[in-house]
């Protein structure tokens, strides 16, 4: 196959893939420069605005502020223990499974997110595996490079037998760098 035919075949296949995936070809800006428009957001993408992380080309020069930022050198800490009583949402009722090998309460789902301009956030899910109503306390530690940034206690609303509750837990302001949140059940033990 000749190089010109191969290039035309690749370009045609790329245009078909882009049309199927919800991105359309706009126009050629400069010779060989293609722009793509995302139909959902309206954003125009060019090779300059798309991530170049997997290329061997050196990245753009870093600013002095970017070079100076070292998240591991952060010393800021929120003093004390923050107590939260979040509004929880009942996610459903599950079969009661508590026994010798199953804990009374299980905790899962602690994933870290940043709410721009506000606070770090994690959403946790607490499930009562027993046939009794339980009052649960969860401890969440927001850390940076394994150093404490904020320690939080979450007072979970009373959970009935088999109830699974989901609730937000807020951490420090986003101007304090956090790279991990670890949550654990403090009570019942």
Q: Could you write a compact summary of the structure shown?
A:
This protein has two domains: 3-55, no CATH class; 80-187, Immunoglobulin-like, CATH 2.60.40. The chain has helices spanning 3-20, 64-68; strands at residues 23-28, 34-38, 44-45, 81-84, 89-93, 105-114, 119-128, 137-144, 147-155, 163-173, 180-187.
Query: Which geometry do the CA atoms define?
Result: extended
Radius of gyration: 25 Å
How many DSSP-defined strands? 11
Question: Overall mean pLDDT score?
Answer: 77
| Unreliable runs | 3-30
Number of helices: 2
CATH architecture of the largest domain: Sandwich
Largest sheet: 4 strands, mixed
What share of residues are in beta strands? Answer: 35-45%
Could you say what the CATH topology of the largest domain is called?
Immunoglobulin-like
Question: Share of helix among residues?
Answer: 10-25%
Intertermini distance:
70 Å
Please give the order of strands in the largest beta sheet: 4-9-8-11
Structural class: mainly beta
H/E element order: HEEEHEEEEEEEE
At the first level of CATH, the class of the largest domain is: Mainly Beta
Question: How many domains comprise the coordinates?
Answer: 2
């Amino acid at each position: 196959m000749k190089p010109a035919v191969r290039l035309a075949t690749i370009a045609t296949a790329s245009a078909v893939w882009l049309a199927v995936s919800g991105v359309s070809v706009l126009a050629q800006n400069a010779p060989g420069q293609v722009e793509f428009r995302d139909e959902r957001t309206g954003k125009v993408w060019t090779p300059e605005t798309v991530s170049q992380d997997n290329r061997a080309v050196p990245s753009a020069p870093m600013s002095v502020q970017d070079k100076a930022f070292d998240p591991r050198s952060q010393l800021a800490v929120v003093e004390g223990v923050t107590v939260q009583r979040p509004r929880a949402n009942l996610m459903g009722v599950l079969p009661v499974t508590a026994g010798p090998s199953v804990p009374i309460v299980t905790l899962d789902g602690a994933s870290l997110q940043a709410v721009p301009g506000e606070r770090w956030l994690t959403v946790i899910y607490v499930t009562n595996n027993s046939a009794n109503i339980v009052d649960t306390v969860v401890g969440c530690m927001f850390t940076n490079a394994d150093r404490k940034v904020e320690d939080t206690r979450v007072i979970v609303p009373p959970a009935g037998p088999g109830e699974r509750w989901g609730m937000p837990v807020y951490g420090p302001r986003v101007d304090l760098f956090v790279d991990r949140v670890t949550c654990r059940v403090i009570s019942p033990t």
